[in-house]
UniProtKB/TrEMBL annotation:
Residues 16-32 form the Prokaryotic-type class I peptide chain release factors domain. Pfam families: RF-1. Keywords: Hydrolase. GO terms for molecular function: peptidyl-tRNA hydrolase activity. Belongs to the prokaryotic/mitochondrial release factor family. The keyword Hydrolase applies. PROSITE patterns: RF_PROK_I (PS00745). This is Aminoacyl-tRNA hydrolase. InterPro entries: Pep_chain_release_fac_I, Pep_chain_release_fac_I_sf. Its EC number is 3.1.1.29.
């Protein structure tokens, strides 16, 4: 993953923010929309592209384009920094593979203890019965 190459491939678009904010919202385009086309990227290897497409499937469009928005701040520049940081965190998460789970055996001492406890409980229940007078 070439970070500098990826930054050049990002597309930013400034849009008017929605929600409360008065006249400022109507005048200033402070919301930033980041788009990143995974298949056309030259900063990623083919394996990384496949991994991203599978791991970030729910976040991608049908053309495998990642779209991120940020309208947290009133400053367009700050929103651009936030969305870029969020993009690289998402990439890092998408490229990581989870550690494989190793199957473990139940310890013999635990099995013995479980059986002993079951027998003990059975004896307690047996002692509660009415005696046989045969």
């Amino acid at each position: 993953m070439n970070r500098e190459q990826l930054i050049t491939e990002l597309t930013f678009k400034a849009v008017r923010s929605s929600g409360a904010g008065g006249q400022n919202v109507n005048k200033v385009s402070s919301k930033v929309v980041l788009t990143f086309d995974i298949p056309k990227s030259q900063g990623l290897s083919e394996e990384e592209k496949k991994l991203l497409v599978t791991n970030l499937n729910s976040r991608l469009t049908s053309e495998n384009v990642l779209i991120l928005n940020c309208d947290e701040d009133r400053s367009q520049l700050k929103n651009k920094e936030i969305v870029t940081k969020r993009f690289f965190e998402l990439l890092k998460k998408g490229l990581s593979t989870p550690k494989e789970r190793k199957a473990t055996k139940i310890p013999k001492a635990a099995i013995r203890k479980r059986i002993k406890d079951k027998k003990n409980l059975g004896e307690i229940k047996k002692s509660r019965r009415k005696p046989d007078l045969d």
